[in-house]
Amino acid sequence: MTEENTNIMTSSKIYIAQSKIPNAGRGVFAAIAINKGDVIEICPVFVLPRKDYKVIKQTALRNYYFMWGKVTVGVCFGFGSYYNHSYQANATYKKRIKEQLIDFVAIKDIKKDEEIIVNYNYGNPDDQNPLWIKEISAPKAEV
How many angstroms separate the CA atoms of 56 and 1, rounded? Predict the structure, then answer.
């Protein structure tokens, strides 16, 4: 990691609360109004050794880690694993592989107390592909 990234602070912009998304559990909410383009949070990531990937994908953590490169995964600390999914996301995430960090960034203005949601499809807000999580499905096409 570079020297500038060794001091990671928690974000005062967010808090954890019960999500209004059915079956989602907890989610991340805006403690203040957040503007489009603002960094919401920078999360440190623990990258698992490649040999542990086969084990962790068979655990309850399966729905909480991020693919890290092509052959392993990272566990995101901070509130990073609590952002819920939506195909109408108001934020995205950007992985910084070398620094072992994930930046969560607003892609729309977010109101105070609004839930912050990302598209789980690699942070791409326009990707409508079905997810690997069975409880979450792709939106149905309008007729």
Answer: 25
Tokens, residue 102: 């994930």
SS3 percent helix, strand, coil of the chain, rounded to 5, is 10, 35, 55
| Residue pLDDT, tens place only, 71-101 | 788 888 999 989 998 899 999 999 998 999 9
Which pTM value belongs to this model?
Answer: 0.80
* Structural contact between residues 133 and 61, judged by C-beta atoms closer than 8 angstroms: no
Structural domains in the chain, sorted by start: 3-118 (2.170.270.10)
Instruction: Report which of 43, 90, 96, 42 is spatially closest to residue 68, judged by C-alpha positions.
Output: 96
Candidates 141, 123, 137; CA nearest to 23 is 137
Task: Name the 3-class secondary structure at 115.
Answer: strand
